[in-house]
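Think of the structure tokens as a kind of shorthand, similar to the way a musician reads notation: each symbol stands for something richer, in this case the local conformation of the backbone. In the example below we present two proteins back to back. Begin with the first one, reading the sequence and then the tokens, and try to describe in your own words what changes along the chain.
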Amino acid sequence: MQKVTIRTTLGVTTVQRGDGSTVAIAIRPIPAATPLGLSPFDLAPGPTMTNAMLEGQAVSVSGSELVLKYKSGTVRVQVSTNGVKPTQQVGVPGGGQCADTPI
């Protein structure tokens, strides 16, 4: 997450935890000209894709919280520091897999 700065445009795939928090399972920089918004994503049952501008970031020992602003709203997303490595397969709800390069 050190490479990401405020006002960077990101594509963030998220899932909802049982406690209601939103958690990132994939984060990637996207071109600034990409339309911003939040929509369902077909990776597994329940995830969303948010194309948004990074408005804020709080970092702690257990991870980060990103504040993402898109066309019609704002979302707070938790990013875990669970040791995910670039292109590592990450399990997602519903038994799906996601191979991505975290920032």
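Once you have a description of the first chain, move to the second and do the same.
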Amino acid sequence: MSSGEMGEEAAGGSVSDGDVREYEFSDFRLVLQPQNELFPARLLKDGGEVAEFRKSSLACRLLFYLVKNRRKPVPTEVLMAALWPGEQGNDLQDPKGSLTSIIQRLRSVLDKNRPPSLH
């Protein structure tokens, strides 16, 4: 997965294409590190890394992809192609079920680390 051009707004305001490296949402900060294809982002909360996030490279890659493409809807097939490029997705018995499982895992990590008032 390459970093590509982003042209997005970060928590601190507008930035030019390719300059965005961090995104803030809720109590989280997502630090992009696109040079690391296995873990293209780090998820931080209160200045520390969310350890559960590092346990799943697919959840990490999913959040990275969704944040980079947050201004547009992303079809299921596109997400599957981003997570399992080329022929990798063909080896899965149930790719949509696998994607659903990864989304549930990511939601679980985010919910577990969210303040009680937002549950």
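Compare your description with these statements about the second chain. Confidence is low (pLDDT under 50) at residues 1-17.
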